[in-house]
Amino acid sequence: MTPLLARTGQALGLAMAFGLAASSAQAAGLTREHANFATLEDGTSVERFVLRNGHGMQASILTYGATLQSLLVPDKAGKLADVVLGFDDVKGYQEHGDVYFGATIGRFGNRLAKGQFSLDGKQYQVPVNDGPNALHGGPKGFDKHVWKARETDEKGWVGVTLSYHSADGEMGFPGNLNVEVEYSLNEDNVLRIRYKATTDRSTVLNLTNHSYFNLAGAGEGDILNQVATLYAAKYTPIDSTLIPTGELAPVAGTPLDFTRPVAFGKHIRDDHEQLKFAEPKQGGFDFNWVLDSAGDLGKLAADVMDPGSGRRLQLYTTEPGVQLYTGNFLKGFTGKGGKTYPHWGAFTLETQHYPDAPNQPNFPSTRLDPKHTYTQTTLFKFSAQ
Ligand code: GAL
């Protein structure tokens, strides 16, 4: 790729000015475009940014919820499929806000017991929205706001950065919080998500992305024969309301042992108390694994393969945990292109600090103080074999 063409959207403009066809510029490398996706009732415009690389990989990001709306990835024959669940219009996201398809989650990923936590002796209450608990930042989390967007690039990457100001007291959390999420794509088929946040008062923060993956393609059945490895010797057991007990328990000898490659379906129906807590009727995975990589972005955290298409997803993250959730609450949604998303129709890899951390003295801290910057980097690397 020439340096000229490496400069993405601008490159395209320049390439056209130099008389090159738009298609050849796109085929040669990284590009970006954006357009209006929807206009909300109050007149707010929702934009969609589309990032592409020279291998056909394409990520679409909405300013609504800073949401990854679609992700085209080649299989072993080079055939593209959209590997994330989502909707064709904003209405879908608004009407099914409790599935969090592709959304940026904040201020607090996963559950806070009874929506409560205390900080420096002061008690805070987040409105509950999941039985007795607060889930994913409460009833109106970051996934239900329209973010600002700007184009960002660095050498070898094409990106878009979304930003949001969460006012002091929003959903009960203290501090004026400025948060940024950057999605970018490179020529190694890596989708990178970087987060940054600052506050003017001490607060707690646990950001993640809630993409649901199906490596065979969204809406192409369930994920039970996709094979996962989680580099995690421990997990955080939960009670019947999905709140951690506070223990870090070994996965060895349980259906949560993914330290060697195993199909999601192999143990999903096992008669095990934790699986029943996650999904009382048929079982399912919905747990926080304690990653052996322990914040090291250079170490593989998880690896999932679809034997049919050959698509493979490798996960790297600076976060200490990952929530693997197998779509246990999906009950035949109609998503993009009219496709049906069945029970167990996808898996999430939500890189995070552990659920309910503010109430669990043994868990890594989720506290953020003024003059400090929260950062997180997560890489989703795709390949096919
Ligand atoms: C997951 C959570 C699940 C479920 C899902 C959204 O992160 O662990 O229990 O609430 O989000 O439907």
Summary tags:
mainly beta, 6-stranded antiparallel sheet, binds beta-D-galactopyranose
Structure description:
It catalyses: alpha-D-glucose = beta-D-glucose. The protein has 385 residues and is mostly beta strands. 10% of the residues lie in helices and 38% in strands. A nine-stranded antiparallel sheet has the order 11-12-13-14-30-24-23-18-21. The chain starts with a helix and ends with a strand. The N terminus is likely disordered. The structure holds beta-D-galactopyranose. The site of beta-D-galactopyranose has 11 residues, from strand 25.
How far do the termini sit from each other?
Answer: 24 Å
Low-pLDDT stretches are: 1-27
Strand order of the largest sheet: 11-12-13-14-30-24-23-18-21
Give the structural class.
mainly beta
Q: Bound small molecules, which ones? A: beta-D-galactopyranose
Report the C-alpha radius of gyration, rounded: 20 Å
Per DSSP, the total helix count is: 6
Shape: globular
Task: Please give the oligomerization state of what you see.
Answer: single chain
